[in-house]
Amino acid sequence: MHSKDKEEHNIEQSKVVDKPMASQSSRPRSNAFPSKALPLRRLRADSGSMLAQDALSNLSEAEINSIIPPHPIYKIVMTGGPCGGKTTCLERLKYKFVLVEVTHEVYYLHSHLLLIIIIICDTAKQYKTKTPSPEAFTLMVSNGMPFSYLGAVTGMPTIVQDTVMDIQIGLEDGFERLLRARGKPGVLLCDRGLMDGAAYMSPEEWDTLIKKRDVDSVSELREGRYNAVYHMVTAAEGAEQYYTLENNAVRTETPELARTLDHQTRKAWVGHPNLKIFDNSTSFEMKLQRVVEELSRLVGLPHSLEKVSTKFLVRGGEPDLDRFPEDVDYQIFEVEKAYVHNEGRKKQTNVTQDYSFIRKRSMINKIGEEYGSVYGFASVQKTSDGQTIETKRIITKREYNSLFNSRDMGRHVVIQKRISFIWKMQSFNVHVYKKPVDDVCIMHAQKSGGDEVEIPPFLDVDRRITDLEEDEKYGSYQISLKK
């Protein structure tokens, strides 16, 4: 990192620290996207690490937990096309978490039409189901909004989607705060997320909506809110004989429309670094099990996924985007990664590597301009039996700047260009190193289970990285080390 870059980080940090906290009542709703207001609603603080000691002394344990959660909270979107199996999968996940005797609290949040179900899993293997709240759209209709309102005047569908998003954000943020406040590991499962709205609007309508909501970048609605996105492909794509309208009273989509909506939904989530697509290449039972296994791996529970590398070495450095087919949508990002010290963390006996890093992920538009960033913190432990245990959480810009200024100076700051895209029901992320090296390009395939990866022909892939030593050689942790 150049001295100028470090100076900008320090300047930004001083601006944040010196800025007085705004009260909730002083922030007009029309000028603030609700997700940005969440840290302020959490007791008027963007980061617990920055709270003064006298402020902490006036807070209850639950209030402190809601600002500084002592355990990770995972927020996961379940999405996909009609008749993809989301409802059945949520039930399967509920009983999976009940049976494994974990202390995770699992909140199920249905937010396409916003049915809320709360499931609490405790060490006694008991759970409670709260009375479902009304779906958001149903709630509006039951309070007097007829369907005819959708075509009442020009722009009504956008107003309806804006209202649905308001309700959805309020529910997600409220349940997340409850999970954080209790001070235990938690999982918030959302049946659809904020980006799903883009599948039901034209690109122009969607752009207009997010601009009116003062959203700087769709990253705020995507990786800035959710740890993972699990897309369950509609049965109309690859399992047509099982596509039916009989098990859902509100489902009216033809198989053709179901496939279109499924494609549009996948397209809406391109760019999330942990987008998993569960297609119909296996039986439905195996499809459900693949989701269970992926979620178990994400939250650190035992799983039976094969230890198969999904990293590939790409020849020739940065890929030529002109070679990408017209029907392949992609997103471009710049990633800044800095390693931080693991002070005070107890090392397990079977752990061979233990490190943490922070990451700034900025979207890049088609003409190379940066427009919006999200921030994350990750802890990684590698064990002697080849396991990699990685825990991630979303952090604020203030936390990022604070940790960046106290980073491990024995390592370079790593800069990468990343290209995210979907091809043949597979999610890919290409990492092009810019600093401290500029001759390494790695393709990561987000595959489920032990499925074989089909290589995109428009990328010049050399080989799969299977050797552990080679995997470490091309990893950021090794590349960042100052020689």
Describe this structure in words.
It is built from 13 helices and 15 strands. With about 475 residues, the chain is of the alpha+beta class. Strands 11-10-9-8-12-13-14-7-15 form a nine-stranded antiparallel beta sheet. β10 (about 370-385) and β11 form a beta hairpin. α4 (about 60-65) packs across α7. The two termini are about 15 Å apart. About 35% of the residues are buried.
How much helical structure, as a percent, in the residues? 25-40%
Rg over CA atoms, rounded to whole Å, is 22 Å
Percentage beta strand: 15-25%
Q: How many helical stretches? A: 13
Order of helices and strands: HHHHEHEEHHEHEHEHEEEEEHEEEEHH
Largest sheet: 9 strands, antiparallel
- Secondary-structure-based class equals alpha+beta
Give the total of beta strands. Answer: 15
The stretches of 5 or more residues where confidence is low (pLDDT under 50) are 1-50, 98-103, 110-135
Average pLDDT across residues? 77
Strand order of the largest sheet: 11-10-9-8-12-13-14-7-15
General shape: globular
